[in-house]
Amino acid sequence: MTDNFWQLYGEAVMTAFGFFWKAGWAFVFGYFVSSMIQVFVPKGRLTPYMGNPGFKSLSLSTFFGAISSSCSFAALATARSLLLKGAHFIAAVAFMFASTNLVIELGILILIFLGWQFLAAEIIGGLLLIAISSLLIRLTFPKKWVEQAKERIEEEDDEEQDFDWKERMRSAEGWRLVGHKFVMEWQMVWEEILIGFTIAGFVAVFVPDTLWAKIFLMDAASSAPEWLRAVENALVAPFVAALTFIGSMGNIPLATVLNANGVLFAGIMGFIYSDLMVPPLVAVNARYYGWRLALYIAGIMYVAITMTALILHFLFLALQITPESARAVEDVAQFKLDYTFWLNLLFIGVTGWLIALHRRHVKKQDMSGMDHGSGFSLKRVLVYGCLLILAGGLFSRVVF
Fold first, then answer.
1. Max Cα distance, the chain (Å)
2. Greater confidence, 297 or 201?
């Protein structure tokens, strides 16, 4: 029994490392492209047009979100900043959804782990999610709550957002800023990624198929109609996502585990879309706007996510293009000499170059004294715990 535990422990750690390995180059490439867009696109020219809930405003908010950071915490902070600059509340919510569902790095990760059908669904569903949430807020708009929330938040100093992008692209400082943005992005998300991928490895190995069958009614497939199971999967998936405490980039490996265990398409998409509903993010919104508006936002998201997941499920079913649960975790997490190996080597070099650019930027700007939030927190405890668990798993592979 003990030997079996240590064998499973080592297997779980190797599965987590396999997830890291498979996604490594995609993370670097995605954040590199994201950093270039953030540095070279003058977003300050967009924000004045987000002050109403019209189509143009929502379109700009969606575009703005898609070219911004995929970090869930950064999405909330930027949405707060948009409200301070005069953006409409509906536009700010649209930005939050776009920045966590339509960014390039997330799309690459979904393509690698789940396949092109899920990527297509993510894009279509992301736009649908914004449309449905905007409609729901229009119908239930809590004007008084929003006004009170705006009084809670204070003015903040943002970096310059209006510049000549051609001149910046030709300058050495522009590329040093790209390196700096790249490193700052990683400083915001690496803990979330580490926790998410570690949990995914252990869930894949230790959680029995029978538990997923009970949660997502798979054991009732012979007696319950599929439409009823799809509704249940879509309703339950956001709560499963909330229990993981993981944001957008960390929950894709877990979505792969659900996919491999036969969870319906509606449940998988509902799980992926629920990254903004995890308790730490709801708590951040509560700190910004108060608990009343934070819970309202979470409620709007839950309804919009459930509706979107179900619409996608039945639309893809009608078109006969529903992705099948065919990608096994072992296929995704395996180590072998293929394109992933060479791309990882290439992007290790790209990472070194970007870090060097970041150091030059920091040196020139005299930013060595900046506080990057390295203090005590629950997330930091989880990070150290994951590092110990991974180290212990590697040790168990050698000993057992």
1. 67
2. 297
DSSP 274: G
Spell out the alpha helix ranges (H) of the chain: 2-40, 55-66, 72-84, 89-101, 104-113, 116-140, 143-152, 165-170, 172-206, 209-215, 226-244, 252-260, 265-273, 279-289, 291-318, 329-333, 339-365, 378-399
Residue 282 C-beta-side C-alpha neighbours within 13 Å:
19
Distance in angstroms (rounded) separating the CA atoms of residues 341 and 247? 26
Q: How much is the pLDDT for 295?
A: 93
Of 23-32, 111-120, 218-227, 313-322, the range with the highest mean pLDDT is: 313-322
Q: What is the DSSP string of 138-181?
A: HHH--HHHHHHHHHHSPP--PPP----HHHHHHSHHHHHHHHHH
Token pair 């987000």 is found at: 50
pLDDT of res. 358: 93
Radius of gyration of the chain, Cα coordinates, nearest whole angstrom? 21
Sign of the dihedral defined by the CA atoms of residues 13, 18, 21, 23, in that order: negative
Q: Output 188 or 116, whichever has higher pLDDT.
A: 116
Cβ proximity of 308 and 314 under 8 Å = no
Residue 157: predicted pLDDT: 44
In the numeric block, which tokens belong to residue 199? Answer: 């949990």
For 46, phi then psi, to 5°, come to -90, -40
Q: Is the dihedral of CA 315, 319, 321, 324 positive or negative?
A: positive
- Looking from the CA of 373 toward its CB, the CA atoms found within 13 Å total 12
Nearby residues of 166 by Cβ (< 8 Å), 6 or more positions away: none
Please state the domain extents for the chain.
2-399
Tell me the two tokens of residue 377: 């927190």
Q: In angstroms, rounded to a whole number, what is the distance separating the alpha carbons of residues 159 and 390?
A: 38
The distance of Cα 29 from the centroid of its chain, to the nearest Å, equals 16
Highest-scoring range by mean pLDDT, 102-111, 301-310, 330-339: 301-310
CA-wise closest residue to 78 among 64, 59, 60, 58: 64
Angle at 161 between CA 72 and CA 26, to 5 degrees: 40
pLDDT digits 0-9 by tens, 220-247: 666 678 889 999 999 999 998 887 766 6
In three-state secondary structure terms, 301 is helix
Tell me the average pLDDT across 108-129. Answer: 89
Return the number of other C-beta atoms located less than 10 Å from residue 160's C-beta: 7
